[in-house]
Specification:
Layout: E1 21-25, H1 28-38, E2 40-46, E3 53-58, E4 61-67, H2 72-85, E5 90-99, E6 109-117, H3 137-150, E7 154-161, H4 174-177, E8 182-184, H5 187-197, E9 200-210, H6 219-224, H7 228-239
Parallel strand pairs: 1-4, 1-5, 5-9, 6-7, 7-8
Antiparallel strand pairs: 2-3, 3-4, 5-8, 6-9
Length: 241
Amino acid sequence: MAKENTPTPHIGAQYGEIAKTVIMAGDPLRAKLMAELYLENPVLFNNVRGMLGYTGTYKGQRVSVMGHGMGIASIGIYTYELFNFYDVETIIRVGSCGARQMYVGLGDIVIAQACCTDSNYALQFHLPGQFSPIADFQLCRLAVESAEKRGYKYHVGNVFSTDAFYCEDDRKTNWTKMGVLADEMEAPALYMNAARAGKKALCICTVSDHIITGEATTAEERQTTFTKMMDVAFDVVTQLK
């Protein structure tokens, strides 16, 4: 099912041009930054719709980096094609999130052990109940070990993944009362696609703003300075067996 479906309508790479492990970011310019900062001899494999993707090596291990766009629908398309058509085994998302708890600060790392969502993405699987999207335990554990070793401030737990960046009412604040760490917009599709394909996935985020205090970073800061989560993601890659 894989090779004959490549290139896809959204990814221009030939089969084999993408590594078995892919680190993804919503902003394609963040993917470009990762290629420049971390990869040796990066080669551009995708520029369809401006969604940049590169393959190179990191500490001798072949790895790809790529953008996935904003929202569950967008990452759902790209990760489905990577898992099912390019035979990618592991995808790690690095992105931004908005903190929901007072003890979570700007620049902290949030490792999404699981995610709640208001999305209907799971309906396509015709499940007789509610599916709980969770990260791969090995990836989660390796990310924690990396953050601890590097001395980075991190939090592990639940995130809330929403379809709506702008909300008409304050019902979403109830997630804070349930101990949810932060909001982001992509993890459920990533985790569900991985589960359905029998693959591995993890979402690592940097806090870009605070829902309670109103603090926020600039777009430029989000694009160029959120490298701690990237350090962690590439550390995880080197430990994969």
